[in-house]
Amino acid sequence: VKELYGLDGEVTFRNVTVPCDKRPRSLHLGTATQIGAIPTEGIPSLLNALLPSSCNGLAALYIRDLILNPPTYAVASTIQGICKRMISLTCSVPDFTCVSSAKLVKLLELREANHIDFCRIKDVADEVLQLYNNPELREILKLLMDPTWVATGLKIHFDSLVTECGWVSNGIGEIVSMDGEINQDISSHPLIPSDFFGDIESSWKGRVKRMHMEELYEEVEQAAKALHVAVSEDFLPIISRIRATISSIGGSKGE
Known about the structure:
This is DNA mismatch repair protein. It comes from Persicaria runcinata. InterPro entries: MtDNA_mismatch_repair_MutS (IPR053276). The chain is an all-alpha fold and 255 residues long. It has a domain at 194-248. The chain is built from twelve helices and no strands. The mean pLDDT is 82.
């Protein structure tokens, strides 16, 4: 099962209770193999031929999961209703960031999530809030609750989802640095190559808001200034003397 769904070997399963009444029967193994729903060498995937080329990744996996594990008729009807509403929308829709929830949970549990992962989580939360704040999209968000419960096994109240998304978005936004934030520029001094500071500072600057690391930023800026002064005092006179010496004997000026 882990190999089929592309999960890591360390991923653990949990028991999820989903009512099975009035639920279509799953595809037979032979049928699923013949249409390529189960990846098999030498058999093309029917989904790749039917779905648009832009439908890939988690979106394609979700469609495949619906085929391999059909939901109840009620949930299937809800998904169909969502698709009909999406087709007739007259407003813009969010980008719908696709991230693996299992991967994010694992990274958070191991405390290995970086600023990019937190930005993705914030994007998902902001998109939920965007759906909620638009009257035309709010009904779609409400309809998405049951299909999401079936797909994830996590049942949450609609109001709780919106409240928690707002809390998550604000919490991450207060700590993680977003694009365009000021005071996150790489140090720059005329006598020192820009690549030097870029290699040292690009791995951490622009990740966390400066207000949470003000002392560290000041230490780095002072160290950069001290380095510039040291280069000016120790190396610039040597370079100037070499240039003057070469010029005095009639040769070309040294670089």
